[in-house]
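Memo to structure team: turn this sequence into structure tokens by end of day. - J.P.
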Amino acid sequence: MAGKKQFDMDTALDAAMIQFWRVGYADTSVDDLSRVTGLNRSSIYSSLGAKDTLFLRCLDRYAARYGEKYDTALSCAASEPLAAVRAFFDVTLERIADPEVPDGCLIAQSAMAIPVLSPAVAAHAKEALGFQRLRLRAALKAGGLTDVDADAFAEHMAAVNQSLAVMSRAGASPAQLLAIVGVTVDALAQTLRAARHA
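Reply from structure team:
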């Protein structure tokens, strides 16, 4: 029985995550969550928590799922920083192209919704964005950038990564998104070359 309950919990959390991802926190009602999870309102509250609690769980679930993919992509940064950064952006581009998931990025949407989020949820959304910068900074430092350059590129790449999700929702083509990534990778290549010859 425990295995069945856990499977159902995972299925319900995934359904709730997709709902928040598709329409955002503010436009998702408890009735919507009931519809997509198949749980009645009282079961949602008892099993998954209030809307804020459930949203935080979904945000953490999303961040962990894609964070693991980003970490894998960046794992070769010490020896191949450019390949690592390309692989990092590939994670986002593949997610954007995946017809099984909504357009955009749950973290980017959450950041844009901060004015209507509760303070606790807003802080959590900011923290999720911060993790991406820290992940990128560590990889760029391992790849040979100075502290100053690693900070600047981590900030820039995190912003570019979030903008890819926003641009895709606005109708940008895969070629346009690749071009945006290309400018960032080219700038990093120039900085790495300069660092090696300094």
